[in-house]
Amino acid sequence: MLAKIEQLLQEIEGLNAQNTEELESFRIKYLSKKGIINALMADFRNIPAEQKKEVGMKLNELKNRMQARFTELKEKLDTQDNSAVEFDLTRTSYPIELGSRHPLNIVRNEIIDIFHRMGFTIADGPEIEDDWHVFSSMNFPEDHPARDMQDTFFIESHPDIILRTHTSSVQSRVMETSQPPIRVICPGRVYRNEAISYRAHCFFHQIEGLYVDKNVSFTDLKQVLLQFAKEMFGAQTKIRLRPSYFPFTEPSAEMDISCDICGGTGCAFCKYTGWVEILGCGMVDPAVLDANGIDSKIYTGYAFGMGVERITNLKYKVKDLRMFSENDIRFLKEFEAAN
Ligand code: DAH
User: Fold this and answer.
1) pLDDT averaged over consecutive 10-residue blocks of the chain (339 residues)?
2) Is 172 close to ligand 1, i.e. is its CB under 6 Å away?
3) Which atom from ligand 1 is nearest to the alpha carbon of 210?
4) Residues 6+ apart with CB under 8 A from 114
5) pTM over 0.90
6) Is any ligand 1 atom within 6 A of the Cβ of residue 137?
């Protein structure tokens, strides 16, 4: 056995590994359970007692040096300098995939641009709001059934903190910090506790408009909305205003545009009416002006609010609202041309 150990000790320095496969073969051959060193260890039992000390020492030396050589080769491979490998520096790199704008952002920007040209600036407010800005300051009395119109997400431990159900809350935020003339649009995300389906979601996007000054009239509102509809949907577009109810406006109206699929003659899209609804609007209720620190004896105002998903659907005929938030790249890529 001593001779065998000596021979292996001689061999150690000459053992090499050019790659990880060779290193693994090295390990299996010498250091694994069924490897040479373990076999020698097993044989050690048969060595006569008087030789045990000498052979044992040699065997340990062999084992340690073999292990050390293995570690050395492994480190060498790990830090191997690749300069010998040839790189083709002229090869073109992988193509960089360009993203595209989300359809809702395309439409939102278009709406913002139109109102921007008419002198509106952008205002912003928080998505996590309090009852005052979403409801009370907008003339929703406590226990008024109008609150049921909006299925609100409440934070259980703090019922005064809610996710805003409409961007009308930003009207209140703007009025409480500034005095007329006020002419803002407020784009943002809103939340409602709705069962998710192809035509409803628990979050969506709105754009709110607010104009407060001396002598602002319903005529101004109608003209601005007509101009918006023509720029957004084409010069041939007609609008109509139907009486409606919102707690924060008096009088209130809903606005329809002539169906751009059938041109107003009636089709499945407009349910054969020739009109499709696009927004709510009205004259700001004097109670809302007063609640937000603006003197309703001096000033009047109009407001409007529209859903970005709704307008995007009208422009691009997206049948299922859920598509907007599923991040399916195939859907998003369809809007590349509109970017
Ligand atoms: N806040 C309303 C909603 O979420 C939309 C709306 C209607 C906003 C009339 C307005 C308005 O500013 O005047 O349904």
Assistant:
1) 87 84 89 90 88 89 90 84 71 81 95 97 96 94 70 83 95 97 98 89 96 98 97 95 96 94 84 93 98 97 96 88 91 81
2) no
3) 12
4) 227, 228, 231, 232
5) no
6) no
